[in-house]
Amino acid sequence: LDASADKIGIGTSAPATKLDVYGHLNLRDSYNLTWGGEYGANIPTIVAVSGASAYLAIYPAGSTSGEKFRITNDGKVGIWSTVPGGYLSVEGTGNHRGVFVTVTGATTYSAIQAEANALTTGSIARFSSSSATTNARYLVNIINSNAAATAAVGLRIQQDSTAPALIALGNVGI
């Protein structure tokens, strides 16, 4: 305890901050780590639950915002999802972008890259919509709005086998 500097040290005689813990810190199950007070409205909170269904969750504005981020005991991450369906699940409601990637200044690397080197069934990427609305709806929309990119390839499909590289079903306009 350094009363002159208003600091408490646990495991150290020279605390560097208001509370300085040198060693392990144990919060009992069902206790939260909060900023600005006890869990409640507008109090950022990290919740950790131990046991067979252990998880770590973040409530950015406490009870006001609800849970926005979760890491499950099997390593899955959910954003706006309390039950992630994959290693990374991003869910949302209303007119929000699920995943938005902006890469500034990159000249040689992919903004998004997916590899499935041992895939035997299924898809590397799957786009699905069950909306009945057909006006101005695209499952894949490729836009290059830079006028100088006249020789740019908008879509490239390459298949290194004798199987078809592209199969189009239904009404297709090209």
Find the structural class using helix and strand composition: mainly beta
Low-confidence stretches: none
Strand order across the largest sheet: 3-4-5-6-7-8
Order of helices and strands: EEEEEEEE
For the secondary structure, the number of strands is 8
Structural shape: elongated
Helix content: under 10%
Number of helices, counting only DSSP H or I runs of 4 residues or more: 0
* Overall pLDDT score: 80
Topology, element by element:
Layout: E1 8-10, E2 19-21, E3 32-34, E4 45-49, E5 55-59, E6 69-72, E7 77-79, E8 88-90
Question: Please, could you describe this protein's structure?
Answer:
By secondary structure, the chain is an all-beta fold. The protein is built from no helices and 8 strands. Strands 3-4-5-6-7-8 form a 6-stranded mixed beta sheet, with no helix packed on it. The model has no long low-confidence stretch (mean pLDDT about 80).
